[in-house]
Amino acid sequence: MNKAVLIILATPMLLANAATAAAAKKDAPIPEQLKMMLDAAMASGNEGDVATLVKYSRIAAPDSIDLVREITNKWTDDRAARRTRELQESSFFALVKGRAELGGYMSSGNSDNFGATGVLDLSREGFRWRHKLRLQLDYQKANNVTSREYYLAAYEPNYKVDDRLYIYGSTQYESDRFVGYYNRYSASAGAGYSAIKRPRITLDVELGPAFRHTNFTDETLESNLAARGSIDFDWRLSRSLTLRQDASAYIVAKANSTASSTTALDAKLLGPLSAQFSYAVRYESNPPEGSVTTDTTTRASLVYSF
């Protein structure tokens, strides 16, 4: 019997052995210690920890990786289905979340100084609609002379086209006479996109046309069409530290354009309480005479999340 005939006769047995080995590999049980860690990560609901365990399972237990993926994929799908039902069936206020930020200082003696800052952020994440509301107050007085007084109220509804793309609307009111305007009204609509959407890192970008009406401190009025763009970046560095970067700009041809940026670091203290350190920059390209183009604010405050 020549070699060719032997190969032909042996091929079915080789294929059967390969299939049996592949099935045995697929059905290899997950090592007990790895299974305990996976169960603990899934019970805690931490998607980042689950993804990390799946990643290193390829090295620690290569014969069990298919079973690990099967279990974790089912867990992810079940969580997504439960979240969808929750968004569809919950009442409006049941899904409202918020952050209240409060900071300030007071001194007396050779000089009397008082300063306070307060921010309230509310959001509701629904199945198709997302709502965001922000209220802010900054006030500072030195020796009975007010040196800072800033008010902000902003509301933004979003309609989610799919998991990443959404249509946004935005209305905003501001007042800051020390920067150079008594009242400023802004309205915008456009498209937004969640460019990064991971358990630890998120990045949303928005772009669209806008209309602004400003009452400056030199008694001039300005109404303009503008282009508005914004970014909202959150990076959870660890379980207790989160870096936030928010920026927006209104670009107006041959008129006053503005840009603002806030960089903040949140450090969890106890339960819903955290400490926040932030640095904010606001820029006006053509402010009234007597006002500077750039205004900066450094804050240290307590934040309560609910």
Describe the model:
It is a single chain. With 306 residues, the protein is α+β, with helices and mostly antiparallel strands. It folds into 2 domains: 12-89, no CATH class; 94-305, monomeric porin ompg (Porin), CATH 2.40.160. Helix content is 25%, strand content 54%. The chain contains 4 helices and 12 strands, in the order ααααββββββββββββ. A 12-stranded antiparallel β-barrel has the order 1-2-3-4-5-6-7-8-9-10-11-12. Strand 2 (113-125) and strand 3 form a beta hairpin. Helix 2 (32-44) packs antiparallel against helix 3 (47-60). Mean pLDDT is 87; it is low at 3-25.
Can you summarize this structure?
By secondary structure, this protein is α+β, with helices and mostly antiparallel strands.
Domains (count): 2
Do you know the CATH architecture of the largest domain? Beta Barrel
Share in β-strands: over 45%
- Mean pLDDT across residues: 87
* Rg over C-alpha atoms, rounded to the nearest angstrom: 28 Å
Look at the structure and give the CATH class of the largest domain: Mainly Beta
Q: Structural class, from secondary structure content? A: alpha+beta
